[in-house]
């Protein structure tokens, strides 16, 4: 039974889709004016794994993730760089997609842009005004928060308490300081669209309400995003959508925790943020993705180079085990490990489903994976005979196919993985290996050791096997 933590009820609940066998899911995307950072990588990876698990469970998933392609930051950046705002947003949509592809994030089924839905937003404003939930003031349209009885239900806040303790800048256009903007009157030089209230552009919150309803219909199953979006963004989405349609907006609300650097939330304002591009210059994307899954998605994640190095070592251990299985030469005689191999896979699959059914607990999955790796290593060390070795390989394949399909890691072959960080051309390496082999043949062991140590200094480990000398390359890091 799949249990999901619902922010709306502040507890785990059994997941029951609105339509049997189908999941409709909307996740708030990025504002496209700059490169994505590790916080975006975390949110994208979290919801990618959730989506993948629903697919693994046999659901038909409709996954929507939007682009906010008009807002104050976009206008400011386009003016600073003297670039047309549409060209700016197109550039960073492309950059976003390149980062997500690198992280093995499945492309969404729908990627709506806010500016493609302006007529729908105007229509929602009109509906809310007709129902008394919104009003016009000097070309701006505001939402009356006091009119919506359930305002604050997602963030577990009461409007009267917020109003009592708040310090909010006075705005003469608003009836209430907590009223939020649905439509902004345009300023000189800003992008704008025609509306019944004059030229203007949409507020942030209404974008997601309109796009999710148009693509998924209301209600839908899951709305997701970072924890920082609970209030005011998601709270305001609920207020708008439920007031306009008179029905429930989303059944389940899922939010991932912050990424912290030195116990502080990563943010551009603090200057402690890292773009995905910067991190990928130093670490392979699979290392980053693995690291992002080592902490439960609802918990804060402490980002550091040390943690990435730990993730790299973990992946090296896994790929080393897979490499040794691939290279093992089973004979007719040996140990029968068939039953133990099948049981290792069975135990892992049971723990995998149990952990993922418990609110997508990826750290527990990784712990179970390393238990399986230790068992597979032990069984390989027992030198299995040929038939049971085939069972061992099949069991191992079953485990790692599941991991690749759902967690999106262990997607390389061991040979590919250990070639990623090759610091010299492969033909140069082959020449060195051949020279070492000749030195050993000539009993010039000093020269053979010199070649081995020289390659080791370049991050290349040589291993002598029955089939000949093989290598595993690891990245040399100047830390």
Strand and helix layout:
Layout: E1 3-6, E2 11-14, E3 22-27, H1 38-56, E4 60-65, H2 72-80, H3 85-102, H4 118-130, E5 134-137, E6 140-143, H5 159-165, E7 180-185, E8 200-202, H6 204-216, E9 220-226, H7 230-245, E10 250-256, E11 259-261, E12 264-265, H8 276-280, H9 285-292, E13 301-302, H10 305-327, H11 338-357, H12 362-381, H13 386-406, H14 414-417, H15 426-441, H16 445-457, E14 460-465, E15 468-473
Parallel strand pairs: 3-4, 3-9, 9-10, 11-13
Antiparallel strand pairs: 1-2, 5-6, 6-7, 7-8, 11-12, 14-15
Helix pairs in contact: 4-6, 6-7, 9-10, 10-12, 11-12, 11-13, 12-13, 15-16
Describe this protein's structure.
This protein has 479 residues and is of the alpha/beta class. The chain contains 16 helices and 15 strands. The chain has 3 domains: 16-256, HUPs (Rossmann fold, 3-Layer(aba) Sandwich), CATH 3.40.50; 305-411, Anticodon-binding domain of a subclass of class I aminoacyl-tRNA synthetases (Four Helix Bundle (Hemerythrin (Met), subunit A)); 426-473, no CATH class. 47% of the residues lie in helices and 15% in strands. A 4-stranded parallel β-sheet has the order 4-3-9-10, with helices on both faces. The chain has a 4-stranded antiparallel β-sheet with strand order 5-6-7-8. Helix 7 links the parallel strand 9 and strand 10. The longest helix is centred in the middle third of the chain and has 23 residues, at 305-327. It starts with a strand and ends in a 6-residue tail after the last strand.
